[in-house]
Amino acid sequence: MTTTNDYSPGLEGVISNATTISYLDLDKEEIVIRGYDLIELAQKLSYLETAYLVMHGKEPTQQEAAALRKTLSDQATLPPEVYAMLKSLPKQTHPMDALRTGISMLAGYEDPAILNDHHPEPNFAKGLKIMAKAPVIACNAYRANQGQPSIPADPKLGFTENILWMINGKRPDKESVDMLDMVLTCYIEHELANSTFTARIIASSLCDIYGAITGAVASLKGPLHGGANEAAAQMLVDILQKGGAAKAEQYITDIRAAHGRIMGFGHRVYMRKYDPRAFLLKDYLPRLLHKKPEGEEMYAIYRKVEEVMFRETKLYPNADYPIGFILYLLDVPIPLFTPLFLCARIPGLIAHVEEQHKENRLFRPRVIYLGPRELHPEKAGAGR
């Protein structure tokens, strides 16, 4: 019999999985990825090298890294029907919803026997198709929404470079590519986040990897999860439009007085400690301010908001706060922030789905029942 002693709202503190993929070590304040510190990986390896590590448990050789780059380049082509679908969606469709629909649609192009084969090799092959195509879907969903022509991935460009290319059709500079690459690495894997748990729950039914990642997209869209980077950036823009850094403190005070949420601060796991990713990325912000005329003023807003939030709540920024600002400075449209978060997280999702399928047990938790008992139906019509 389940009792209230067994109940943990939001499953806080509940251990649901054993994993070799990643772990948030609060004592050492490290994000452990396959035994490595994520912050060190972000500074020393490229996103794709880290992706290989996440998926396969070891650093790639030069040949393995080159093979991954080629596979992703070869698989980055979308079926014409997917482009047509993106153009047919209602104009108010968020790119995350388009991405969810697009990834689900891709499952229909798989041989059914391969689609439902959960062995490692076909799982990774399907996962890499999703990883290659997801940024193409996301960027072109936004372009379709804006009435702009589609831009396919350029096989001459690298994975991260292609993302910026598909957003605005311009060859990005190295500084922007390197910064986005670090952002993608910081988002690549984070233990058992809501979207990762969603993917594992779906995979535990022996659903295919397309279904598991489609579910993760839906989870990540929520403002309490991936959508927080959009909300954090939009807050900085709102403060800029309402008077700049001089108005930042009052802006935060007004929201808190109305019991509103300030997105980009605090974290369910880190609680009142600094997210290591946010701590790393804040030092890169000054290098990017020149990319926007309003960069310096927004940086002043950024610092004032952080100062007020710590003074009033003792909460530090999480990764979404600096990443939202970085993506804004890189001229990424705000509606694409969360889709890029999802695209960055796909290697982690692939690894978790594969691990779930390898040592599977169907998730089936219980509840604490608080409803009535021993009710009896009243007699319905006499003709029954």
Report on the architecture of this protein:
- By secondary structure, the chain is an all-alpha fold.
- It has 2 domains: 22-222 and 333-358, Citrate Synthase, domain 1 (Orthogonal Bundle), CATH 1.10.580; 228-329, Cytochrome P450-Terp, domain 2 (Cytochrome p450-Terp, domain 2).
- The chain is 55% helix and 3% strand.
- The chain has 17 helices and 3 strands.
- The chain has helices at residues 38-44, 47-56, 62-74, 80-88, 95-106, 112-115, 120-145, 159-168, 174-187, 194-204, 209-221, 228-241, 248-257, 276-281, 295-313, 320-329, 337-358; strands at residues 22-25, 30-33, 36-37.
- The chain has a 3-stranded antiparallel beta sheet.
- Strand 1 (22-25) and strand 2 (30-33) form a beta hairpin.
- The mean pLDDT is 93.
Summarize, please.
With 384 residues, this protein is an all-alpha fold.
- Strands of the widest sheet, in order across it, are 1-2-3
**In percent terms, what proportion of residues is strand?**
under 5%
CATH topology of the largest domain: Citrate Synthase, domain 1
3D shape: globular
Please tally the helical runs, counting DSSP H or I stretches of 4 or more residues.
17
What's the mean pLDDT score? 93
Structural class: mainly alpha
Count of folded domains: 2
Distance between the termini: 37 Å
What is the total tally of β strands? 3
**What is the level 1 CATH name of the largest domain?**
Mainly Alpha
Which percent bin holds the helix content?
40-55%
C-alpha Rg (nearest Å): 22 Å
Biggest sheet overview: 3 strands, antiparallel
CATH architecture of the largest domain: Orthogonal Bundle
Helix/strand order, N-terminal first? EEEHHHHHHHHHHHHHHHHH
CATH superfamily of the largest domain, by name, is Citrate Synthase, domain 1
Uncertain segments are: none
